[in-house]
Amino acid sequence: LARAFTTRSAFDPPSEGYQLLPFRFHRLDKESEILVNECGEFVIAPLGTTERIVRRRLRPVDEIYGTLKAKHFIYDGYSSALLDVLASKYRTKFDFIGGSTKLHIFVVTLRCDHSCHYCQVSRQTVNKGEFDMSKEVAARSVEVMLESPSPHLTLELQGGEPLLAFDTIKFIVTNAKAGARQKAKELDIVITSNLAFLTDDILDYCKAERIKLSTSLDGPPTIHNANRPRPGGDSYQLAIEGIKKARHVLGTNQVAALMTTTQLSLDHPEEIVDEYVRQSFHTIFLRPISPYGFALKSGHKTGYEIEAFLQFYRAGLSHILNINRRGYNLVEIYTKILLQKILSPEGTGYVDLQSPSGAGLNVLVYNYDGDVYATDESRMLAEMGDFTFRLGSVLKDSRAEILTNQPFVDLLGAACNQSLPGCSDCAFQPYCGSDPVYHHATQGDMLGHKATSGFCTRNMTVIKYLFSLLVDSDTETQDILWGWATDRNLAEMRSDIPQ
Amino acid sequence: MRLHTAGVASGFRKPLVVRVTTQPLSVERRKDAALVAVSRDGLSSNVSGYAALIFQEKVDALGIPVPVVHSVRDIDHFRSGHIVALDPFNGFIRTLYRPESQHNTLFTTERCNSNCLMCSQPPSDKDDAAALTARNLRLVDLMSPAPEYLCITGGEPTLLGDSLFSIVRKLKDVIPKSYVHMLTNGRRFAWPDFTSEFAAIRHPNLSVGIPLYADYAPLHDYVVQARDAFDQTVIGLHQLARHEIEIEIRVVLQALTVPRLAYLAEYICRNLTFVDHVSFMGMEHIGYAPRNMEDLWIDPLDYQDELEKSVTILARFGIDVRIYNLQLCVLRKSLWKYAKQAISDWKNAYSEPCEVCDVRDQCGGFFQWNTKVKSRGIHAIKSSVA
Fold first, then answer.
1. Which alpha helices (DSSP H) does A60-160 contain, by range?
2. Does B228 sit within 8 Å of A89, measured CB to CB?
3. Closest to B308 (Cβ–Cβ): which among A70, A493, A498?
4. Worst-scoring range by mean pLDDT, A478-482, B64-68, B371-375?
5. Is A449 exposed, middle or buried (0-12, 13-18, 19+ CB in 10 A)?
6. Would you say the ipTM is above 0.95?
7. How far apart are CA A85 and CA B242, in angstroms?
8. pTM for this one?
């Protein structure tokens, strides 16, 4: 005998209404606003929706009622709010914090053959020793690095030009590997170099030690050489030759390139992107110049307003999307990071765009002289005489001391955008970060004034732009963007998606 | 395809589960075997050692030292290796297992704690768990050759409690390589102790298929006719994921589930990220469904937009999507690549236009009973336009 059925109205929520869960909102345009909850889940809805929600004007029969309930914006007496599920999503989002300090940057020497306009710290060849990392400092730095609880460490060797101090590199690599083995930690090693001094011996060493290379490529020769002067004016040629040689010996994906956007770059987004394609790179990072050190001082030469950069970014991104449509896979890294933050339930630990900020927490910089800084930018500030973010010294401090000294405690106080003025009520907070070092450098205040912050303008603009693409662009563009967020190229997306 | 028949039972008082043989066996191989024959003619006079004898003709069972079912209506469907259940009271012979089939099941109980509006196999409240568990445990012991794939179904298998654990343990011990898929509403897994004990069995090839009909609790609960079912199922899914058990989400497409289908897809991406597959299934027109057609019927042609949108959301996210029980002629071409042929061989049928259809071989066809309520889109596809 069949059992009886219960009518639909028996499953209606009780009439006493609903309660709010934490969320934030932002007007997108004249018609719509975006609501974002603590875990970064979003609803794009007609303007006025937030007001209707908070004034308790929604009714369970409204389509958006169910959506807001399912996405954890509101809850009612019908069922549990499934807060455990919300908690689990929140935990997933912030899982990256548990990783501790993964990235360890060693400044093995300040000496460099280049005199780049945006570099703060390099010294034209002075006598060896004065600006090189001593064995004592190197050994202690490795010890402090290995004190990090992270099971996976990345050791980045940079300068100056680190290949000018190759013996120091070898000493550090040997020590670090032995220590990592002993502590059963995984260790990745990267050398960041302009490749001008790359030799076959160095490459053989890198191959034997499984060391990756990272270099600078600012665009085609005119832009690259103008940004990166060296005696002979052949920085571009040396970098390209170095990339080719290194790929041949180490393998294509063992060599990465980064670009810095100068004032000169601003007018040439497409040429710069094309250069990356010409050199067979599949990632590009349209990176604004850091407003530190020489870059601040020589603002007339390299600096620019953030609006000019955003114009450059949009033109570059649009060109990159076209290149993907034509079948060449090229990912813009900053866009990818933001898309992952927006579209994925996972958290993304990118030290320059996370909350709490990665400075000190997920990255530490060990300077040639033993001083430890929160970020590479912190070290550059120090070269200008501002030691705010010098956290300690490997010569007298343990890791525990470095991370409990006053400078780091002060930094942490400004590291969580959840509690920063201008951020705490921003809809895009879950996708954004905090950058106490940037705000200290540009505004003299770690907390920062967001209305005039270049960091805020950049991220607000880019995030809104990405939302407009995710909502309004054609299927192919959306597939490319989703592919970046989920590590699939357009061909793979096409085979996965209804066509 | 015939799966049951009946005759006159004699010489046994408890249900028997036996493996069929159509050829006489030597004495030492007779244990567990039921010999099928037209009559006693031509059989050796010594039949001792068989678990049972099945005769098409009437046989005088007196004096035969083993259980007998005679006067059986049909014996042509029996193949050596099939496993059948013999009922001592009504002489029923039900085929439980066919090694050559991809659609073997362990039917655990008719009871269910939900009462879905479109249930294809409506529950009943009789207490059948003990008898069916005994039958299933015996059945697994006899499965030889082992199946590639086996489905645990009901009713709601988790209502068995400890008996379900015994069955899964038995499967792990006897046929560990057979891939087991259990169809459950997942509600019982909301209780952590139950899930821990289930997971502790550590069956190496097991997945669960769990239906979720909406992102919005009241709607899901209405469809399954059970208050709190949504919360329990969602929590159950999280518990299962914590134990790293493979999960398929099953969504039946009908008039109540279609309007929020895309929201459900988004819900799965953000809240049930860990699921391994999401399956969209055309509704079966049997069981409760015919009775609730006013509430449930929507022509599949009329939900292709929602289906494509939902598949896109899941596929963009990277979740594996499958579509079952929808004929290619009503399924939008962009969705063909997700369509699977999976209707059990004994339930499968084709309709009249199918006879001249050029993609019939790729098509899942119909449930027999669905040929009665067809989409207006059913038509033969000619390769010139396919």
1. 63-70, 83-93, 135-146
2. no
3. A498
4. B371-375
5. middle
6. no
7. 12
8. 0.94
